[in-house]
Amino acid sequence: MIRSDREITDRSEQLAIIDACDVCRVALNGDDGYPYIIPLNFGVDVEDGQVYLYFHSARRGKKLDLIKQDARATFEVDCDHELIFYDERMSCTMGYRSVIGHGSIEILPEEEKKRGLDILMRHYHAEDFPYSEKPIPMTTVWRLKVEGMTGKHRDNNHPGERRWTPAR
């Protein structure tokens, strides 16, 4: 990393960034030689110090075909985007927080699917709530075992800068 002053190596800070994000991009090794990247809803769980990212998909499709060929994957999450203006220099940059990492994917067996979906739902809803279990047999639940990750941020306040966050 060129800007080591922006690197985040603390695991709890990395997990806080992951928790703040609502989309995780997963890159798979494409069968045509190009990476295949997909934005996904996700959940995160730490089991005995091991970080896992949970996902769901249909029972068939390109993602699953690629995972069967090569279970290695890379992921990326980012949040807190804001445009930072430097009036004196007449320039700008972007503020952000992000985490990238890599690992291997495993498809969960039927008996673990509900737990995986509960983890995914917990990411978007702090409280537990009932949901229909009827679609579970028609759903594939998979997780990425994180083997390495690093975070990065650009959020320092400096004199002479002003910030603009786009309305959503």
TrEMBL record:
* Signal peptide residues on this chain, from the entry's feature table: none
Task: Read off the InterPro entries from this record.
Answer: Pyridox_Oxase-rel (IPR024747), Split_barrel_FMN-bd (IPR012349)
Q: Which residues cross the membrane?
A: none
Gene3D superfamilies the UniProt entry points to: Electron Transport, Fmn-binding Protein, Chain A
Q: Quote the protein name from its UniProt record.
A: Pyridoxamine 5'-phosphate oxidase family protein
* Organism (species): Enorma phocaeensis
